[in-house]
Amino acid sequence: MPDAVVPAHRVLRLGETTTGRIPGRLVGTDPGHGIPMLRNSPSCLAATAVGAAMGAFESSREAVSGRVTAGAVAGGGNRMAECVTVQLRVAEAAASIDAARTILLRVGGFAAAFE
């Protein structure tokens, strides 16, 4: 509605949200009311990426566990999960995901998001 009127006490201005000086902070006791809105955005975006990486890792690990080699180089019928190069790549991916997750838990305070 182009001619709708919003009462002033119902308006939350961007400047208030980015500085943490929101009206709720004046009457509430929750310390979260004083956190600027954009303060947590990078951590939220990173947490989403880490969660996606965790899911992709599990899917890849499941896929590899059931596959066997075709025999082009090392003979056929060998389990891919037993190939040293595959194990190294899986370990490297797990370590990278764990490092990113640990950083988020320490710096971003996202312990509950991963439980």
Brief summary of the model shown:
The chain is mainly α and 115 residues long.
Question: How is this structure best described in words?
Answer:
- By secondary structure, this protein is mainly alpha-helical.
- About 55% of the residues lie in helices and about 5% in strands.
- The protein is built from four helices and two strands, in the order αααββα.
- It has helices at about 15-20, 25, 40-65, 85-110, and strands spanning about 70, 75-80.
- A two-stranded antiparallel ribbon has the order 1-2.
- α3 packs antiparallel against α4 (about 85-110).
- The chain is elongated and about 75 Å long.
Instruction: Work out the oligomeric state of the chains in this entry.
Output: single chain
The H-and-E topology, N to C, reads as: HHHEEH
| Percent in strands | 5-15%
Number of helices: 4
From the helix content, strand content and strand pairing, which structural class follows? Answer: mainly alpha
Mean pLDDT: 82
Contiguous low-pLDDT stretches (5 residues minimum) are: none
Radius of gyration: 24 Å
Largest sheet: 2 strands, antiparallel
End-to-end C-alpha gap: 43 Å
